[in-house]
Amino acid sequence: QVQLVESGGGLVKAGGSLRLSCVASGSAFSISAMGWYRQGPGKQRELVASINSAYSTTYADSVKGRFTISRDNARKTVYLQMSDLKPEDTAVYFCCMIGRLWGQGTQVTVSS
Predict the structure, then answer these.
(1) pLDDT per residue over 30-80, tens digit each?
(2) Residue 1 pLDDT exceeds 80
(3) What is the predicted pLDDT for the residue at 27?
(4) Measured between alpha carbons, how far is 84 from 98 in angstroms, rounded to an integer?
(5) What is the DSSP letter of 43?
(6) Mean per-residue pLDDT for 94-109?
(7) Contact criterion met (CB below 8 Å) for 50 and 71
(8) In whole angstroms, what is the distance from residue 32 CA to residue 16 CA?
(9) Which residues have C-beta within 8 Å of that of residue 55, sequence separation ≥ 6?
(10) Environment class of residue 13 by beta-carbon count within 10 Å: exposed (0-12), middle (13-18) or buried (19+)?
(11) How far apart are CA 37 and CA 50, in angstroms?
């Protein structure tokens, strides 16, 4: 059974950085598109970044230039490096094996 387990969330001051990690179990990771979504207080879940099996990436306009998604197929892990964090980045961040599976989420809180 495939599972996704996120880690790396926490509390950080504005301007700071965090790196989120998502480890997948199972054998489908290397052929799967992976994404990071977030859901802020009172907001809908939104796609933050994605990376496909060919390492092509997409980003929400709000995070371009600040966030970087990457993957390590040998470790079955997808990362989200977040820099220059802003209070509006505060949300629960979810890892996603696109079209298939969600992680449980990890809280990111950015204080001003």
Answers:
(1) 999 999 999 999 999 999 999 999 999 999 999 999 999 999 999 999 999
(2) no
(3) 82
(4) 26
(5) S
(6) 95
(7) no
(8) 30
(9) 71
(10) exposed
(11) 9
Tell me which amino acid residue 106 is. T
- 1 token code pair: 């059974």
10 Å CB burial of residue 32 (0-12, 13-18, 19+) is: buried
Q: Indicate if the pLDDT at residue 21 is higher than 80.
A: yes
Degrees to nearest 5, angle at CA 25 with 21 and 26: 145
Of the candidates 74, 30, 37, the residue with the CA atom closest to the CA atom of residue 52: 30
- pLDDT of res. 76: 97
> CA 1, CA 22: separation in Å to the nearest integer?
16
Closest CA relative to residue 78, chosen from 46, 17, 36: 36
Distance CA 75, CA 96 (A): 16
Say which residues have a Cβ less than 8 Å from residue 54's Cβ, sequence separation at least 6.
Answer: none
The encoded tokens of residue 38 equal 């977030």
Q: Which of 38, 67, 72 is nearest to 55 (CA)?
A: 72
